[in-house]
Amino acid sequence: MSARKIAKIAYRLLQLTFIGLVIAHVSLDLGYPWWWNFLPLVLSYGILMAAHRWGGAPDSPRAAREPVEVAPPVAGRWSALNSPADRTPSHGTHAYGQTFAIDVVAEPEPGARPKFRWLWPLVRRNSAFPAYGAPLFAVADATVVRAVDSQRDHLSRTSLPALLYLMILEASVRDLAGAKWVVGNHVVLDLGNGAFAIYAHLRRGSLTVREGDRVTAGQTLAHCGNSGNSTEPHLHFQLMDGPDPDTARGIPFTWRGIGVPRNNEIFEAPTTESQPA
Fold it and tell me: For 68-269, which CATH superfamily applies?
């Protein structure tokens, strides 16, 4: 186990210890000053800061390298969100190797995707979104090194109350539980030359590959879903320098024939011979 992984595990355990001490202090008369409860919290952040100082933290990008060119993971008309073409880190953090990550949502025609609402409806069924169930394709000839398909697809978080719930409560719990619960159902491909591709938030029961399988570019891997730390059915795609998002650092990518679409940019991904028409 790497030093980065150990640091991340220690961070989560200390965060949970802090929560447990606060609950115990409120419920029981433990006879010590209340500020002692915060010692595990301070220590948890100290571990991450120390790991960062000595090069062991996952929350920092690797030295600049040329973008890796791969095929697009989707086919048809899509729109980009949280794109590294607009800023890096694209999702506001280097954690989980997502420095150069991108989110894409299906836009088969204008207005086909439900828009964000301030109050109502609070949530929507996944079937209301055209991305749900869309096939996802291997971006290169590769080996499947991770394939997780056990988490449910939850309802959308596309209203202000639901989004606040996700950001304040659900995301915090998932972060403490580990990377698996953040990315949801996912597939990780080993592309070779130290590059790994992850497809996150996949639909439960849709994976067509298993760990150890060899896949070819354009082969169907799974279908788009809404599992993990996700607001609506979409694909979260990124390249990283290792198979574990907890310890990996992001790698820039470019999609062959498309480049890196900017936020809200509509792009058309071609269908290849090995993909269904």
Answer: Glucose Permease (Domain IIA) (2.70.70.10)
